[in-house]
Amino acid sequence: AQSVTQLGSHVSVSEGALVLLRCNYSSSVPPYLFWYVQYPNQGLQLLLKYTSAATLVKGINGFEAEFKKSETSFHLTKPSAHMSDAAEYFCAVSDMRYGGSQGNLIFGKGTKLSVKP
Amino acid sequence: NAGVMQNPRHLVRRRGQEARLRCSPMKGHSHVYWYRQLPEEGLKFMVYLQKENIIDESGMPKERFSAEFPKEGPSILRIQQVVRGDSAAYFCASSPPRQDREAFFGQGTRLTVV
Asked: For residue A100, what pLDDT is reported?
């Protein structure tokens, strides 16, 4: 069975500091991996995705993530945090029973990012 | 092309009433997915539908919950005889027929049972 674990339910950084949100996955087949952002009372917006091409994936708003098979990780980073990055971030893996469908997703529990001035 | 539209955005129901949540997929999208987000939890898959077919309902509670995606009109998630534990945010996503295409999420319906 596939699963996703996000380490740290809350992360706080100072404005301008490095953002690192951790995600580990479990999958018996090569996974498709995703990071989503959710602002308060909003839906989910796709930040970036890995679908077996380049292992370093660049997304919107300056975020990127690196797929590391040996560590079963897909951590999200941003070099310099901005106040507008405060939100909740979800890592997800595609349910491969559907051939990598990008709508059948298994989500982690989320990490709330706070950015201090 | 409008995004995935969900309505209502907020819904308040008394215990025992029925809740009907609507999801209009993006134009050209024939696949719809429903998810539930409980407080302090991630999204949990509920059901996957294509036009007039339920493909996977393994995440749906066995009782009181049903979903449909008719040939015409929006997808409907129906919760009968709601209980306090049904209070959550319900999201739908839609995608085109090809499985390697991105799915887009709606803004959700926040159901409160009082």
From this structure: 66
pLDDT of residue B1: 55
Nearest-by-CA chain B residue for A40: B107
Cβ pair A68, A76 in contact under 8 A: no
Q: Do A44 and B91 touch (CB under 8 A)?
A: yes
* pLDDT value at residue A73: 96
Q: Pick from A27, A93, A95, A107: which is nearest to B41 by CA? A: A107
Q: How far is B96 from chain A (nearest CA, A)?
A: 10
Using CA atoms of B10, A39, A110, A6 in order, give the dihedral in degrees to the nearest 10. Answer: 160
Instruction: State how far the Cα of A72 lies from the Cα of A100, in Å rounded to an integer.
Output: 17
With beta carbons under 8 A apart, name residues in chain B contacting A42. Answer: 107-108
Q: How far apart are CA A43 and CA B60, in angstroms?
A: 21
Residue-wise pLDDT for A37-88, tens only, equals 999 888 899 999 998 778 899 999 999 999 999 999 999 999 999 999 999 9
A37 has which bridge partners?
A45, A89
Q: Are B98 and B27 contacting, i.e. CB atoms less than 8 angstroms apart?
A: no
Positive/negative CA dihedral, A50, A53, A54, A60:
negative
Closest-approach residue (CA) in chain A for B93: A103
Query: How close A12 comes to chain B (CA, Å)?
Result: 17
Of B87 and A100, the structure prediction assigns the larger pLDDT to: B87
